[in-house]
Amino acid sequence: MRGRWSYGGSEHRPETIAPRVTFHDEVAQQIQREIEQFPRVEVGGKLVGTIKAPVLPEGGSLSRYLEELEIDVIHYLDAGPRARRSPTFHLPDAAYQVALFQRLEEQHPEVQHLGTWHSHHPNGLDCLSEGDVEGYFHSVNSSDHSLDVFLASLMVDRSGLAHARHFLFVRGCREYFEIDPRAVRRVRGRNPYSAIIQGYRASFGGASRAKSAESWFDSEAGKEVLRRDREEIPRLLPGARCVLKKQSGELFWEGRLNLATIDNHIIYRYPAEFPAEQPVAVVTGSGEGLQIELRVSLDADRSLRQLAHLLKLFRHLDRLRVAQGAAGPGPGRPPDPESNPAEPRPEEAPPAEDDVAEPSWSLAQTIESLRLLFGFSQNR
Q: CATH classification of 15-214 is 3.30.420.10, yes or no?
């Protein structure tokens, strides 16, 4: 499993390693300044410096290779004047960063692109997103990356480097690693790259001109909703994970009910204009003689109670199917979380009654209620 972050579910913890990693003090100071300058959006940059590494073994000891690594982060390339930022994503100005690296390389041919850093300080996420992980695997295995490793540093709060988490991706390796924070230290002294980078930044106005794309995460009300949902949704759907699509900034919960006869996938999605727009529940599932495809708009102020009611109905349906002798779900590809079944009519939204006690209906009544409320087919 490749380390997806989670608000409520169990987070995958990569294996811990301890290569020697140093950050120049100026890097730490500038990271801190960027976070303070942009308190409501993600910030980041490309880490540059030098590395001492043995030859990556083919079939040899990867552990020994990692132990002998020495990574010196001397500076970083800021995101540039055309960067786009929001509380949930960070897209740098690639052309600016390439030009700045070439300028630096002209005077310091030893410089290497070591990896990247970015922050999650505006959204409170303390681990890499799915999009982060996929992107870093792509970067380390790209022919454009000259090293066999890729360092990814995550600033989890406004303290910057002080509480940062550091991860290492290795070319050809299917897993990634977390660096022991005790193996990371700061060094002081004159920074050999500083004059070049600062001069180039000044010619473009530096990072202060970066654009930010506002999001509902930016509001205190939005943060309060997330704090509530972190507590409530895992209780309603044990093991649920909160997933961030890095490129789009889309945020949603996903999980599965532990049912005996229905293979299912539950999505609780926040729209881009939340809370002005209603959250959406997407349910796909299959079983013997049963096919479920639901996409239901929920009331923003009662969405979790409606979700609870919906999940109870499906648990009840599963128990009734067990009593009727329905077979369990067979092997196969899980439902596509991005499926887009037809939007139900407004009257098909789930009931919002305060009482979500277990229903006492028969199998036929439960199926008919789900059909009328949400619309799904039971194959004969």
A: no
